[in-house]
Amino acid sequence: MRDSGLHVIVGNQEDSYKKQAVRDGMEAMSISQAASKADILFILTTDESQPEIWEEQVLPHIKTGKTLVWASGYNVAYETVAIPPACDVLLIAPRMMGSVVRDLYVAGRGAMAEVGVHRNASGKAERTMLALCKAIALDKGGCIVSTCMGEAALDLFAEQIYMPVMTQWIQTCFELGVEFGFAPEKMVLELYASSEMSQIFHLMATRGCFKQMAHHSTTSQYGTFSRASRFFTPEIKDHFNKIARKNFHSDIEDGKFVDEWTASKADAQKKLQLLMQEKLTHPMSKAEDTVLSQLSTFNNASTSSSNDATGGLVTFATGAIIGCLATLLAYYARSENGWTRSH
What we know:
Elements: E1 9-11, H1 16-23, E2 27-29, H2 31-37, E3 40-43, H3 50-58, E4 67-70, H4 74-77, E5 88-94, H5 98-106, E6 113-119, H6 125-135, H7 138-141, E7 143-145, H8 148-179, H9 184-193, H10 196-207, H11 218-231, H12 234-253, H13 256-263, H14 265-280, H15 283-294, H16 312-335
Parallel strand pairs: 1-2, 3-4, 4-5, 6-7
Antiparallel strand pairs: 5-6
Helix pairs in contact: 8-9, 8-12, 8-16, 9-15, 11-16, 12-16, 13-14
């Protein structure tokens, strides 16, 4: 936004991020000072810390006419923050990590984003939203009209239904490969560290989930498509769907996850630390430390299209992953009927 001509100030606590903002030439100050001084506020704190920060450091300085922008619909959708009625409230949620949003801007491109006007107190909220999207180059990536609840629910769907299956299946394939006699380091390379899987996902994004298989060998194509159904039998799909429906309706739609993560923040953060430590001490994490220290250039490989580059183990992994994608995305497509959460 600064490079697009806007006067940007950064409100942050005294930590490494604030020091980085100063090094980057930003005008940095406390959150309270920034909230008081700014006409347009981007609320970018972590979801779980936001209600407390909002109540103590931001809300006292919110006056009529300010524009409030959220990059995540979570706290607005689940009403964990009290927003004064005389303010415009916008959703501008890039579908990309913040550092990559910057990289795309510098490259003359832009990230895709979910955007929406949650409250139009001034009558000019949409114009402000579009101008801000242009300042971040989101107009170049493409903007999808959404709502705070729609953005938050889909984000939680990806994080709690799609990603748990993905990451756990990678770990399971690692364990099976080691059991079958493959070296742990070779399993890490084959499953993700060689960057082949990231190339496959890049092709999914640019060519299509199944159409990208044309870039694989015919051996890989046949192995992936013919073996997927062995893993995702009707019984397994029914098992996954039951868990997915329970997670979606109870944790996401009814807000039980918010109660667990935000309302019980201290306990949830302790649990997160334990879960992270469990993963970091897993043999796969230890094997990847060896691989990445010796072959760090693998993660900086070119993003050019790969040609006939899959082997038996990738077929084994991706066959189940593609079957899982089809199952979970089909369920979400059936669920997205414009629901809202009432209080």
